[in-house]
Amino acid sequence: MKFEAVTIKDIAKALGLSTSTVSRALRDSYEISPETKKLVLEYAEKINYHPNPIALSLKERRSRSIGVIVSEIANSFFSQAIDGIESIAYNNGYNVIISQTRESQEREQINLNYLTSRSVDGLIISVSAETSDFSFIKDIISRGMPVVFFDRVVPDIDTHKVVVDNYRGAFDATRHLLESGYRRIAAVTNSETLSITQDRMAGYRAALAEEGIAEEPGYTRSCPHGGLVLAEVNTAVEGLLAMETKPDAILALSDKLTTGCLRILKNKGLQVPRDMGLIGFSNSDLTELIDPPLSIIKQPALEMGEVAMNSLLQLLNSKQPVTEFNTHKLAPQLIIRTSSVRA
Predict the structure, then answer these.
(1) Helix (H, G, I), strand (E, B), or coil: what is residue 15?
(2) Which end of the chain lies in a sparser environment, N or C, as judged by fewer CB atoms within 10 Å?
(3) Is 242 helix (H, G, I), strand (E, B) or coil?
(4) What is the end-to-end Cα distance of the chain in Å, rounded?
(5) Cα separations (Å) of 123 from 67, 162, 216?
C-alpha cells in the first residue's frame, strides 16, 4: 500500500473550507480571521500535517537541504565530520542527504547526479580515491551550485576548502618514530592522486631528510582504495616484509590502512612494536583498546565538519557572487601509545 501524506486538500475537505483559505490560514495571512486560523491550525496539528518540502522548494526555489559526499560513512573520521556538518545544518534549518562513493569515481558521479537533480541547495564533498576527472564538479559550480570541499580537496577548483595540516601530521609522526629509534621507516599510502596523500608523503619525506636519511623507494607502498580492500593492504605489507632489508616501522596514511597493517602484521606473527613499529592516521576511539594500543595522528573531524557547513552557509547566504575563497587548515593531534615506542 503506497504511503500518502496529508495535504491541504484533505484539511479543506474535512473542515468544509476552500484550499486557498486553508493555505492562507497556515501562512498566518491577515486575510483570514483568528477563529478560522485557530480551527485550521488545531486540525493540522491533530492529523500531523507537514508542508510538502518539494512543493515549498519549487515555490521558494530552495529545498533547505544539502548533499554530503564521502568515501565511507562507517569510517570514524567521516562519521565524526558528518556529525559536525549535521549539527550546524540542523541549527540553521537544513536537512542533510548523505551518500558514499566507496572510493569509486562512477559512484561519485551517480551521487552527484542524484543530488543535483533533487535540487539540493549546496554540496559538501570529500572526493573519492579513483576520481581524476573533476569536470562535472567544475560544471555544476559554474552553473551556480555552491560547493565546499573538505579533507580530500581539488586544489585547482576555486571554492572554500577545509583541511587538516596533513604535512605536519605525517612529519611529526615520522619524527616520533625516528626519536624512538626506528631508522627504516616505510609508508603505506592511500591513492597517490589524493591531496591528502601528497601532503602526508611530503611531511614523511621532509622528516627523513631532516634526519639525513635517504628515502628508500621500495618502502613506499600504495593501496588505491585506502584500506577498503584488505587484499591491497596485505599485498603492500607482504611486499615490505619480502624486501632484503625490511623496514623496522610503518607509517600508515589513513584510518583503515592503520588497522589493516596491524591486523596483517599480527597474522604474520610479528610483534608490534618489537619487530615492527606502527603509527597511522586514525580517528577511531578503539585504537586505544587494541593490543597493542595504537599511536595515531588524530584529525579534528567534528570541527572540520562544522567549519565546512559554516563555509557552505556563507556561500548560500551571500547576496552577491562569492569570488574570494578560504582554505581553513586545522591542526592534527599526535597521540603516542605503545605501538610506536620501542622497548
Answers:
(1) helix
(2) N
(3) coil
(4) 66
(5) 5, 13, 40
Tell me the β-bridge partners of 335: 296
**Per-block mean pLDDT, blocks of 10 residues, the chain (343 long):** 68 88 83 88 82 52 87 95 97 96 96 90 96 94 96 96 98 98 97 96 98 94 93 96 97 96 96 97 94 97 98 94 95 98 85
Class of residue 7 by CB neighbours under 10 A (exposed 0-12, middle 13-18, buried 19+): middle
Q: How far apart are CA 32 and CA 23, in angstroms?
A: 10
Partners of 327 in beta bridges: 161
- How far apart, in whole angstroms, are the C-alpha atoms of residue 275 and residue 258? 16
Query: Is the Cα dihedral 206, 207, 211, 217 positive or negative?
Result: negative
Cis geometry, peptide bond prior to residue 273 (ω within 30 degrees of 0): yes
pTM for this one? 0.83
Closest CA to 101 of 135, 75, 80: 75
**DSSP conformation letters of 92-155:** TT-EEEEEE-TT-HHHHHHHHHHHHHTT-SEEEE---SS----HHHHHHHHTT--EEEESS--T
329 CA to centre of own chain = 15
